[in-house]
Every structure is written in C-alpha cells, then in structure tokens.
Amino acid sequence: MIKTITCIGAGYVGGPTMAVMALKNPDIKFHIVDINQARIDAWMSDELPIYEPGLYEVVKEARGKNLFFSTDVKGAIKEADMIFISVNTPTKKYGIGKGRAADLKYVELCARQIAEYSENDKIVVEKSTLPVRTAQSIKKILKSTGSGVKFQVLSNPEFLAEGTAIDDLMKPDRVLIGGDQDEAGLAAIDQLVKVYNAWIPRERILTTNIWSSELSKLTANAFLAQRISSINAISALCEATGADVEEVAHAIGTDSRIGPKFLKSSVGFGGSCFQKDILNLVYLCEFFGLHEVARYWEQVVVMNDYQKTRFGSKIISTLFNTVSGKKIAFLGWAFKKDTNDTRESAAIYVADQLLQDEANIAVYDPQVPEDRMYMDMEELETRPMDVNKKRLTLCEDAYEACKDAHAIAIMTEWDEFKTLDWQRIFDNMKKPAFLFDGRLILDPKKLGEIGFEVYTLGKGK
Ligand SMILES: NC(=O)c1ccc[n+]([C@@H]2O[C@H](COP(=O)([O-])OP(=O)(O)OC[C@H]3O[C@@H](n4cnc5c(N)ncnc54)[C@H](O)[C@@H]3O)[C@@H](O)[C@H]2O)c1
C-alpha cells in the first residue's frame, strides 16, 4: 500500500503531474523536491514557476493538505514508498554523444541519492524521458549499495503537452507503465496502476515490459515531430506552387487514416522535448548500427531547422535584402501559446539570424520575462551579451513593440494577437508595413485591406 510518494524534480513535468495525482489521491502524501530553492519557493507562493492554464487552482487545492514542496531531497527519499525521477535530461553538450545523446547525469545522481538514503524497499519510477535500457543502469546503481533494501524500477513516461498539461493529466489518452514481468515487477506495476486508477479508467492504463515503455515515449515524440516537419516541408512547396498549406492540411486531414491533428504548419517546432528526443533516438540507432534508421529520423530535425531559417531569410529578402538598423517586432517568444517555456523556441533562432544581419528586435510575449529571453540568446553564444541587450528588447505590450517597426513577425500563436487593433498598429508602423505570420493565426485578406504587405507561411500567391 503506497502511503507516501516523492518526486525528484519540480519542473514542467514533476510539478503539474504530482499536483494532479495529489488532488486525485487525497490519502497519499506527495512530496516534491528540487535542488533549485527559488523554484521551490515559487511553487509555495501565489506565483508558480510555471504558467499552465488551470495549474494554480489544482496546486492551491492540494498544497499544504497532501502536497508539499521542499529542497529536502534526503528526507523525501527516506520517507517515500514510491519515488518518481522527473529531472531534466537535456542533450549532452560534451564528450561522447555530444549534441545527440541524452545527458543522464541528473538521473544518475538521483539514483545514487536514492541508493544512499533509502532504508526501506521502494518503487522507483522513471518519469523523465530516457533512452531505452536506462532502467538497467538505474537498477545497477540501486543494487550496488549492499544495504539489503529492495528496489523495483518502473518506466512511466509522461505524455502531457505544455499549454494543455492539466487537461492532458486529467483526461489522458493513455497512461503507460512498464516494468519487469516477474512477480515482484508485476506487483510494483499494480501499485502504480492503483494510483492512476483513482481517476483514470483501467482500460486507459497500458502496462508493458520496461523496454517497450521507454522506447514508446521516444517513438511518440518522433512521430509527432515528424508530422510537423512533414507539413512544414509541404508548406515550402505550397509557396512555390501557389497552393495553400491550410487547404492541403484540411484535405489530407479528413482522410481518417491520416487524421486532422498536428497538421498545422508553423515556423518550426520548439520545446524541450521534440528535438532532444529525436536526436537521442538518432544516437541510439547509431549505437545499434542502424545507420539508415538514424538518417531517416535525423531529417525531421534537419527540416525543422530549414523551416526556421527559411522564415528568417524570407523576412530579410522581403525587406530589400537587409534588415540592418531596421526595427522588427516579434509577437511571441514562448515556443507555443499558453506556456512561459521558451526552450528551443523558433523565436530564438530566427532572432539570432536577424541579429546577425544587424536588425533591432522588439519582442512582446504575454508570459516570458526579460531575463529568460536574454538567457536564451546567451546559450547560443553567437555574440557578446551587451550586443544582444542593445539590439533585442522586451516590450510591455504589442503596440509598443510594433511602434515604428518595419516589419512584424508572429512567432507564437497566442490568442490575444488575433484581437489586437491591427489598424492602430499599421498606423504607427514604417511603410511599407510588412507582416510575417509564422503561425497562420491572422486573416491575410483583412490585414491586406488595412494596407499591410502580408506573408503567411505556406500560402502561395
Ligand atoms: N516539458 C515537457 O513538456 C515534458 C513532457 C514529457 C516529458 N518530459 C520529460 O520530463 C523530464 C523533465 O522535464 P521538465 O520539462 O519537467 O524539466 P525541468 O527542467 O522543467 O525540471 C527538472 C527539474 O529537476 C531539477 N533537478 C535536476 N537534478 C536534480 C536533483 N539531482 N535533485 C533534485 N532536483 C533536480 C531541476 O532543478 C529542475 O527544476 C525530461 O526528461 C523531459 O524530457 C518533459
């Protein structure tokens, strides 16, 4: 019987996932721990570190009752019957596998801490997205203590999407739990099934062997990203041929074998997962000598990079082949709407491209703070920070960002951009007033009537 659950990692996955689990399992105590004190402080305040619709309400309801946040990793490990590892697994930036393999140092550290501090038997759950067969390494570390404590390792990958995390957690398409198929493994799977079954029908909780579960997460993300790259590839062809990517997407999406979801063309996918998980898959394929398979999946990332560069190049070529000294307004910096997450956002890369061409960029995003934007640019290491700060500014609202701009680029599909006073924006811009819709959210006809020179991605003339 599970009485206490600990989650290591209070990020975009650990926080919302445990908050919903706590809400639905009032008899279980949930303790979320993180090494980042500021993040924990924010989880305990009214300004959560993560923006997600509906998250605050869930946290408020459970916090202090059966949901607790702290930096006491040791204490939380000791008290738990079940421990979720939900730490970050970024792409490795050094050594073997640099730029491709997942960096598992944070996961390994968690396993070592669990091994060191545990005094009673525990179920350890991989919530982070991990390369297939990571559970083997975790088991090895856990077994090495000689303390007599028994561990079961489960894989329970998270399929939530940022921006809709609470809905996804409340009503998931499925929950996936992988574990050893012997008696102890199946018993551990059963314990976790019970936690989810508090609100999710049993038939939606899939159980598999541990390697299938680990690989399913990477595969799901690869398929999703592949669909985006596929429609983005077609968007380039639409522009060249006079077709309209939205019409093509609708026409193919009505085929029940293809389906309508994830066929929205854009300036390119971002987020912390798609690129890193595909690169990880590519690395795994290469490791197992499957070079053709590796090249196949690599193209999804190549196409995504192409789409971002293509958009930036379109802005430069349309503005008479130079943006030097010109003001370009970016509406949106987050990688998608309804999140403050900017990791791998297309806006970062397009901004970098335009800054190389000496543009001045004024950004407005409803959720992204200034220091986050500068950190994103700093990570690219393209130019000194003072140059980024001189050329790139964050504005209080869209009107300020667009004032005296030569061009506007829609980088994130925030709903509020659809209802801006576009006549007012046009009146305050330099002419000709160019508008580049990288998210296909605006009506090009209406904007054209106001006087804008509109480029909508994937719409051929
Ligand atoms: N973000 C998503 O939409 C999403 C969706 C599904 C799966 N995932 C996967 O979930 C995992 C976590 O992603 P995230 O977006 O929540 O990451 P995140 O960076 O938002 O959060 C990870 C947290 O772990 C903490 N941490 C790292 N090492 C620690 C340690 N040793 N002890 C305590 N805390 C530690 C960090 O301080 C950070 O706050 C990744 O593997 C990711 O691929 C993410």
Overall description:
This protein is an alpha/beta fold. The chain contains 18 helices and 14 strands. Strand 7, helix 8 and strand 8 form a beta-alpha-beta unit. The longest helix is centred in the middle third of the chain and has 32 residues. The N and C termini lie far apart (64 Å).
Uncertain ranges: none
Strand coverage percent: 5-15%
> Looking across the biggest beta sheet, what order are the strands in?
3-2-1-4-5-6
Number of strands: 14
Intertermini distance: 64 Å
Question: Which small-molecule ligands are present, each listed once?
Answer: nicotinamide-adenine-dinucleotide
Categorize the overall geometry: globular
Helix percentage range? 40-55%
Structural class call reads alpha/beta
Describe the biggest sheet?
6 strands, parallel
Total DSSP helices: 18
